[in-house]
Amino acid sequence: MPLVIGLVFGLCALYFAVWAAAAALMWLILPALCILVPWAVVAGALMAAAIALLTLTGHREPPETITPDLVKAGRDGKLPKPRAAEPFGRDWAWPSYFSAQAKVDLAQVWRTNLRVLAQGWRWIRRITARGWPARIAVLLFGAPVWLAASTGALAATAAIVGTGGLVLFALWVCWSIPVVVLRTGDQLLRKVRNADAGCQACYHVNTLPAFACPVCERLHWDVRPGRLGGLWRRCGCGTRLPTAVVRAASQGTPRCRRCREPLRDGAAVVSDIRLPVFGPVSAGKTRLVYTGLLALRDGVAADGGALEFADPESRQTFDHAVALIGAGGDTTKTPTGELPHAITANLVNGRRRALLHLFDAAGEYYADREDNTALEFLDHAQGLVLVIDPFSVPRVRDQLSGGESEKLIAMASPAAEEPERVYRVTSQRLRDYGVATGKQRLAVVVVKTDLLAGSAPARDLAPGRVREWLVEAGLDNLVLSAERDFGEVRYFAVASLSGIQAGDPRSPAGPFGWLVSGAGFRLWSGSASAGLPSHEGRTSQEPVEKEQEKTG
């Protein structure tokens, strides 16, 4: 009987306990949760906003700053990989905010809020490990409230990150429009001008030159507007630098990307014209170069333009050579075994400017295929000048007779190699290096006509008949090969003397004026013809079968 009574009392106590718990849940806990949960959601959202603000202002787990060192190191995920392989990597400069830092800031806001919410859940788990009373309290109040706060915080964080991303995207679009316009305009302007910068020292042609910071002298290899700056960029040392090649060149000196030597003033901005002069030893190349430049300078000045040398070395060498020629002396032989520096001149015609580079290597380089591998300037030329010494042609020497012939030949100091061999070696080198000679011009220049004047070989050597004279002199194979290999060939007979005006058919300015015009720069009115008859030129597209039949 006592056992039954105890069982009844136990069941009654259990009933009242369950009833009390249910009543507490229905009338106390659930109403309290209905009040606390919405406020917890709001509190979680406010907490997320506060954490975002503290994170972005650097007071709580500040985002990683994308420094120039990280940019230079190529930190993965911070900046998109360059489209093309860049041997120098990215420049040491601060990236634009939209390119890297914006993404890092938004990601850090998201991570910080998630970290705070995770800390709350870890605290709840530690409380539940202390025993059942704490476990029940946490399950009834702590977990639901923190779940509501977490929901509000996650929603607010997503809204902040999403809204921030949309705003930044809109600002990035507004920022990108002038950047794209500036970058495209800079590229188009330099392409129209044919403004690739040829290095006068190592012969490398720089499509995109480097620029040095004027304060720290660190080289910036790619100054185009982009991820490292829109209208301006900030060097790692803090110096503000202009972007775009045209703007950067107006405030600094471009550098060669290969040898890092300073380029000429105007390089990569104005038209860049590269003209090698090749021929045998003692053919008269150097004399043609300097008398040609002298005649060009006078002719351009007479037409209202100007030709000025771009560096003191070119000016000094030119003045020395012209003084020797004016005094009746011979120009100094080009040093053997020494690669030439380009003789560079600034050409000005109205609002247009160009840099003219003339390359005069020693004739020994053109006599052997192995020797001219170092002549890289041949690969980047817009046109070439082949110098032919008539006194080196056997048929011409055979026609010289009388007591004056030996004296005349001694004065002429004939070239040691025949012109056909020099042409064959040089043209083979161009083909081996993949040069598209079919798109280039070749000026074939017969020099020393002043010494040949009055002799039997000179009777048929006149402007308009130079090609025929070469064929009759036994150089028909050279003529046909040149017209087959090059896109356009023109023939000149010049006297490399000072005082001959540019419009004279014998002027040494003729071949250079024709080649410069072919590169897209008009020196003066009628420079395309340079005073020569139109039939003196042949293109590689013209059939040569008839000419081959004629020459047998």
Brief write-up:
The chain is α/β, with parallel strands linked by helices. It has helices spanning 2-56, 68-73, 97-128, 132-193, 245-251, 285-302, 312-326, 394-399, 404-412, 419-432, 449-452, 466-485, 509-518, 545-551; strands at 93-94, 197-198, 205-206, 210-212, 219-220, 232-235, 240-242, 254-255, 271-278, 306-309, 343-349, 352-360, 383-388, 441-446, 488-493, 537-539.
Number of separate domains: 2
The CATH superfamily of the largest domain is: P-loop containing nucleotide triphosphate hydrolases
User: Which sequence of strands runs across the widest sheet?
Assistant: 10-11-12-9-13-14-15-16
- Structural class call reads alpha/beta
Order of helices and strands: HHEHHEEEEEEHEEHEHEEEHHHEHHEHEH
Helix count, per DSSP? 14
CATH C-level label of the largest domain? Alpha Beta
CATH architecture of the largest domain: 3-Layer(aba) Sandwich
Binned, the helix content reads 40-55%
Report how far apart the termini are: 145 Å
Q: Report the portion of residues in β strands.
A: 5-15%
Can you count the beta strands? 16
Backbone CA Rg: 41 Å
Q: Shape from CA axes?
A: rod-shaped
**Annotated CATH topology of the largest domain:** Rossmann fold
Major sheet size, sense and barrel closure: 8 strands, mixed
